[in-house]
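Protocol step 4 of 6: record predicted structures for both targets in the notebook before any analysis. Target 1:
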Amino acid sequence: MLRSLAALLLLSSAAVADTADGEALKAMTWDQVVEEARGGTVNWFMWGGSDTINAYVSGYVADRLKADYDITLNRVPITDAADIVNQVLSEKEAGVTDEGSVDLIWINGENFRSMKQADLAFCGYTTLLPNDALVNWDNPAIANDFGVPVDGCEVPWNTVQFAFAHDSAVVADPPRDMASLLAWIKANPGRFTYPAPPDFTGSAFLRHVFIHAAGGPESLLGPFDQARFDAVAGKTWAILNEIEPFLWREGATYPTTVTQLDELFANGEIDFSFNYDPAQFGLAVQAGTWPETTRSFGLTDGTIGNTNYTLIPFNSPNKAAAMVVQNLLLSGEAQLEKAKAEVWGAAPAIEISRTTPEVQAGFAAIKTHPSVVPASELAKAALPELQADWLTAIEKGWTENVGN
């Protein structure tokens, strides 16, 4: 039940931090938000499949929050953000409007679309964050999340672009476009596979094949169109069914997560892995799980790039503290720390030119890991993300026509 601002003023500052509604927060100055946040706890639900990302969040980020704001960060590892979307939706249906279990989610794409459409996101506050000034909201790839306008409902965290990894000691000359990759798969039985949807990365691989079948992304841009989908879908299912017998285990089964795909590559069972975040390849080499001869590449006909974000659910009881977390994540210092190859190697979501000279110098000094294809090279052939309704239709079509 929403409380009036007058009622809020009667509460202690500690209680306000836990119960202040969103409209009251949006009426405050940033200094007031910070004071409300002090001593709070943020339950951040995020993909937990990378030890290095987990260490950055539970170490660098959590330590700074505790030291500077007395905020406790509770990182809650998840496999699929869709599960948390459903959790928040269930809370809303049960009437839980101000004591939700989720304070922050690492999210993008169709999961963001679902939360925005169902009014599950806290919106309209992002301009309060001082570090919002570092974000280029004029960039449509940031202002729109898989074609869905952000509208102040989430805060960018990283930018990524899909890439493939291979062991150069095993595959010296990998295929460089989708047609060549499909031919390679049939010529090398059992040495390639992809995670089954709805795995986020497996779904991205499907979209690359779908775009290839369409002859490029141009006819797929904009809102979902059933006729255009049908014209491309049949070709896509034919391609995927044609390569299926040549996949790992003859396509009788698929990995269910990108983590399993990475394990197959690490064990030498397949010759390629792939990821939206190529920095993961260098981290796997540093961890000793992948060979030093690992190298990565994009495709000459393009790979998909996008931005990922953090989002505060509408019923988070710790919105002020979650806003402070988001502001810290956007800071030049935090973006620089995670950009370091030994920490994560993540591409920034902010304009480096808007940061301090010290932060700019730090970015300039970063050297890309030899196993990681430079972002500047990938960017030469970047493909736009399709709108979320296309993703849903492609995943459903795969289940019905290929995965069955």
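Target 2:
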Amino acid sequence: MTRRFDGDRLLIATHNKGKLEEMAALLEPYGVSVVGAADMDLPEPEETEDTFVGNARIKAHSAARATGLPALSDDSGIAIDALNGAPGVYTADWAETPNGRDFVMAMERTHRELEAINAPSPRTARFCCTLVLAWPDGHDEVYEGVMPGQVVWPMRGEQGHGYDPIFVPDGYDITFGEMDRWEKNRISHRAKATAKFIDANFG
């Protein structure tokens, strides 16, 4: 049976400040205050699944069990058609270094791999977001959003985070990295998934 969130405080199971800020802005009109996993001193659970929904479930349920609060997690990434959907669930892994995540390095790798196979233009891709809302008793609800577009080179723009400077969403001629954050929040894969979450819980 579908369950609705009826509280006013929601744990966002992420250590990513960019994602936390986006979710806080999207949920603010509904009177929901958010707290991040880092604020609760929660560890980052190992993401062992090979799907967005699988990894989102790991994070949401881990946070809900640890805190006794409903927890909303996000697993998202970019899937590039010419690379058979890579990096996909490994989007953040491509940026891992011993000193933290380096998304410039990840975008450079993406470009090298596309050039190595002489991928034709447009290099179609899509940002995918899966949200899982989990309760401490183990119940969860799933909401998914997709933003189609293409990857471009060179990198453009200083806004956003992750792979935003190389992704041009369909219907636009600028990258997410060049886009005003509020415009991106309105159209992004995360916005679409969050809209489903909001419609299901506050509509």
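Step 5 preliminary note on target 2. The two ends are 17 Å apart (CA to CA). The domain at 9-202 is CATH 3.90.950.10 (Maf protein).
Proceed to step 6 after PI sign-off.
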